[in-house]
Design brief:
There is one protein chain. The protein has 275 residues and is of the alpha/beta class. It has helices spanning 50-57, 75-80, 101-106, 110-113, 118-121, 130-142, 158-171, 188-203, 215-221, 238-241, 244-249, 253-260, 268-274; strands at 10-21, 24-35, 39-43, 65-70, 73-74, 84-87, 176-180, 207-211, 224-229, 231-236. It has a 6-stranded mixed sheet, with helices on both faces. Strands 2-1-4-5 form a 4-stranded antiparallel sheet. The chain is globular and about 55 Å long. Bound molecules: adenosine-5'-triphosphate (ATP). Adenosine-5'-triphosphate binds next to helix 1.
Length: 275
Amino acid sequence: MATIPDTPTAAVEIHGLHAAYQRQPVLEDINLTFPAGLWTAIVGPNGAGKSTLFHVLTGNMKPLRGTVHAFGHPIAEHRRAGHIAYMAQREAIEWDFPVSVWETVMGGRFGHMRRDAWWRRYMPARWYHPRHGDAVRDALAAVDMLGFSDRPIGALSGGQKKRVLLARALAQQARILLLDEPLAGVDPPSEQLILDVLRGEREQGKTVIMVTHDMPSARRYVDHVVLINRVIRGAGRPDDMLSDAKLAALAIARVESTAREMAPAASPLSTALDR
Ligand SMILES: Nc1ncnc2c1ncn2[C@@H]1O[C@H](COP(=O)(O)OP(=O)(O)OP(=O)(O)O)[C@@H](O)[C@H]1O
């Protein structure tokens, strides 16, 4: 866990954010800061609005009102500059699409290609600027998937799909990484690999923001935790935010019990909550 400065620089600042689907409120008056260069976990029960918050940050959803800034500028400027990478949940991707692992990860470079010479953009992939291929190779190597480059994405296992999605986000070489449940549905070795990759990104100064239901990993690895259930229910250090009392209040005792099956010891309070 990194040491948090008393007044950390804000990577993302959200003020007075409201979001709704068909007038049904999902996020209400969100005021939140994600510290720069740190690893934040967003924790909340199913339906709490975690993915919706990411949809707003990635520009896929327009909020009803509120402002979002990244490093002091409207977040849309950073999106256009390719500073924000997003890893969706596995379910959000069309896996039957006939593309290879390499091509999928290259998708993470399309934002950067806008700055390339115009003629490269109208040429077959082998004419892409070599730095895009380098970024894809590095990202696939980081998640140990380089050997699967030519494989169709539909022929991957669930854990391999997660790694490819992470590689696509890494290939963007963005300042801010938004990861929606990167640890869900992967086996312990893949989980460890993903955690190590994210720790490496944080050590390089990247701001890592992940949604997770995996409390043991959040306790062990992240620097900062945001509790959310349509409204912000708390933000601070993992040991403060992830106490049994706070999690019970957030109504995620059931999720916590699932995650705890992998943890070394159960606390009496959460055991009682599970009964
Ligand atoms: N496209 C949509 N249209 C209408 N309602 C939606 C849509 N997407 C999400 N919702 C609703 O918005 C609420 C928040 O959903 P969201 O996916 O943001 O929750 P979440 O915290 O990410 O949940 P989970 O942990 O299950 O992924 C839920 O009640 C959900 O049913």
